[in-house]
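Retro notes - structure team

What went well: the batch runner handled both jobs without manual restarts.
What didn't: labels got mixed up in the shared folder, which is why I'm recording both outputs here explicitly, each with its sequence directly above its tokens.

Job 1
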Amino acid sequence: MADTLNQRWAATLVGALVATGVKHVVIAPGSRSTPLALAFADRPELRCWSCLDERSAAFFALGLSKGTQTPAAVLCTSGTAGAHFLPALIEAREGATPLIAITADRPSELHGFGAPQTIEQRGLFGAWVRDEASLSEPFDAGLEHLVAVVARLVHRASTPSRGGVHLNVPFREPLAHPDGLAGPVIDPRAPAFVAAPGVPALAPLQRLLASTSRGVIVVGPRERDDGFGEAVNALGRALGFPVLAEAASNARFGFEDAVWATDALTRSKAFSDSLRPEVVLRFGGGLTLKQPQQWLDACGARVFAFCDDGQPFDPQHRVEAFFTGDVVAMVKALTPQAPRPPGELWSAVQAAQQRVGRALERAPQHLDEPRIARSVASALPPGANLVLSSSMPIRDVDAYAPAGSRRVRVFANRGVNGIDGVVSTAAGVAAGSGKPTVLLIGDLAALHDLPGWLIAHSSRAPLAVVVVNNDGGGIFSFLPVAERTPHFEEFFGTPTGVDFSHVAALARARLHRPSSLDSLQSAVASSLAQGGLHLVEVRTDRRANVEAHRQLNAALVAAVEASS
């Protein structure tokens, strides 16, 4: 008889625990935990222990962790059973001992309606665990996610600061296979978490990099001012790997070898297929633009990620290993002393990017949003700050602003990518750094943070705010909903009709309204030279903006695919 979804889910979870080094599991009896108990019992690599009391079971698992110096797991059923794990988890946190608490749970449809042995188990242990995850009910497409969650939790339990973690796992009935079988044995590939303070931990990766010339380095948003841009571009040159540097990576502007035309390159199917690497080194956060991220997810390469703060970015679960620690030190350790000549990918990417640059120069220089972004970035003097708002501004700078020779520092709130508080953030960047700062922002985000204009004035920060005013939410015009509902303008486009001269008056900012790309660049340059707060408003049209992007992107793809 075929295995059930519960069996596959449980077998995958148990396989992930085995892959991440768990050797001991303590099982308290119960019904809802049946799929996991059977899956644990079916693994000869695991020593399974039975304990009738959950409190004692958790402390016994704690002792196993201490005695073996490996994280032990403890499993119980749903309801109050898991509450008895708390004393041991408190001791695990205060004593820096890894402990993996697994609670089975009832499915979501039983919660809140008086079903027996059903309590809210998410967040059950509060601050006493280092990390927690409450899974959804089993579904076939979620197996890779399940493996990644287990690997992350074991990593959090086992690395400073060590302690307990909580995994809450709901199951629907039937809980056991009709034949009483445990189900298949599944051995998934779990991503490794490698603390790499020096060369020894990086040695296997160094050997891999030395064996291939088909590699790329991909850099998402990263704000630290620690020499990373210089280091990662030096690594790319030494390995002969192109460095695909996002606008907010702080590895693009001022680094003439950096690849800035990634969006155009990956929009071409023919070129992106030829670009497929064998190895990808990932730095920084998630990529802003959809096309490069989709290419990266589908490229089929071995992917290795480097994490400054131990926070993994891998929503598609493609990363083979996460290296945590001092990223700049790791980059320097990976840089070979004897540089290799540029590889095949390096040469192809640089040639295609030059064609994209020429196509951008030849294109009509209208005052539309792609050219506004490009012009603002090119108007910045060396050493200035550029703050990019979410939605269209950061996307347009990312897609169309070349690396150039002028070093500027880029900031963006890309943790959760919201449009709230962007003016205030830019004012803080300008005031904190004391350097001339330009904020590129849309009209809705600029209005969303009206108090930010007041603090920008009172802080006397050297800030020029370039407001791209298309009277509404321009990014929504790129979505299918724009053509599919009569309610688009009311609920998505949301035009406000605000006259930004009133915003300038509110903030006591000097107002500029350029009508050409040249006058825009002059307004930005003069604003930075004068200091203080300036509002540079550039009017565009939302519907025309969509067509401008389409036409320009088509021209750039044609340039990528041209033979010369």
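Job 2
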Amino acid sequence: MARLRSLPFLLPLLLFFVAFPTAPQAHGGEDHGSPSPANVAAPAAFAQSGFGADGSAFQVVLYPADGKTMVYLADIDSNAPVTGASIEAEADGWRGSAQVTPADGVYELAWMPKGTGVDVSLIVSAAAKDDLLLVQGVRPLSPSGHPMETTEPPPSHWTHWTGGGLIGAAVVVVALLFSRRRRASAIVLASLLAAGPALAHGGEDHGTPQPAQAQIQPGQPIAMSKSTQFLLGIRTEKIEPREAADTVRVVGRVIPDPGGYARIQPSQPARIVADPNFPIPVPGQVVKRGQVLAVLEPTLTNLERGDKRSSLSRIESELAIAERELMREVALGALVPAKQVETTRIRLDQLRRERAQIAGTSLGRELLLAPVDGVITDVHVVPGEVVGPTQALVEVVDPALLRVEAVIHDLLLARKVSSAQAASKLLPGEIFPLTLLGVSPRMDPLDQGVHAVFKVHGGQADSLSIGMPVDVYLATGAVRLRTAVPRDAIAEMGGRQVVFVRTAPETFEARPIKVERIVGPLAEISEGVNPGDRVVTQGIEQLRAGR
């Protein structure tokens, strides 16, 4: 009978467990279990949004949307946008030509595929190359840029919690039926009501901290749309066996060639004059040989100025006498010998030139002329400033005539050098062949090294600047590299060396590698890549950061 008296207290408790579950459930595609560790790498954040294909010379990606199809065309090896191409397309009984857009490497087709997906054949002609590409399964893209797909809604959460709630209610009812005191029943019921139910619903935040997005890990694929690749300037290079010179790296810098370099200085103390007929040049200005670069007015003491004025007065007096004498001799005609008339004229011309030299302005000016053709690099000219003979006012350099000076500390190596290459971190991916001009037999007392001078070929000298630091790779022998990549293509990720390999038009992969040796600007890879792979050489930081 005591147990039957407890039924009024048990009825609300039973209803509570039927209405609410005793434990949170996972549903709606959510996982409410233990949180994932923070060091687990998430999939790549990029989305592969187009339909691409690789050919023998080009790669292409199609973006069908808004009643047209955009075509992104790139070189298969360098990943550079291809401009000025002719593209003929054929798909499902339709034929047409792509139209050029203002963006480099981007073309437009006035065509949209069917929703089920069709295959598109493209005939591409550009830069004396022809290629046939087949893009399979092309279908319209959604407004978010992804192929349209239908997904079923997640099952309702009401089908997950009823069984758990009934089981929990039954266990508690049985425990209370065998309890001896009603107060214990009331305490249990109050505790459960105070705790409240924990429900899991789709789209809610249950307080579990989300792990931070990890960087791209080695071996993880990275998808990046072709439009983003063009925007970031992603460039690749095909791995091929190469013949390279066994080199030794030394430090060097770019210096001007004396045949194309000039430093203009005044011949005497003078003051710079602002002459509107000869404006002061600016750095970067192109000048020609004989062009006036500055106007100087000699600075004279009172004594020197007095001597100049006395000389000017004397010359003007002699000039007046010579002019009257010439007029008289001409008037006498045949009475005066022709030789005497000619001598008077020569003397008159000489006096006029002397007067012009002294009395041109305030006792004469000096014009500084450009001795060579070139570009102004430095200007130290301020109107009104007094300059001396040891001060360089203007420097002119011919950018097509440059040299590289390298410092060699190994005397035996200095005797073996035959040629070299130069590279700079300021110009990634560029290599400058050098021709040896000579090695100095004198050791510099400042850097304790022997200086070697190399000539830069004119076609590549425009990219360099005077004073730029460069790495000089001295050739000491020949070696063959089976899989060589530029040293700048190697990145550091998670304490490992990796390179980014393009595996598809919109997909890259960070591959761990093992560097066998470094030969000049190249690195030979023994593991991780194979000949024919296309390694990213520009835009590595964006791929490594997952942006």
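One thing worth noting from job 2: The first helix runs from residue 2 to 5.
We'll revisit the folder naming next retro.
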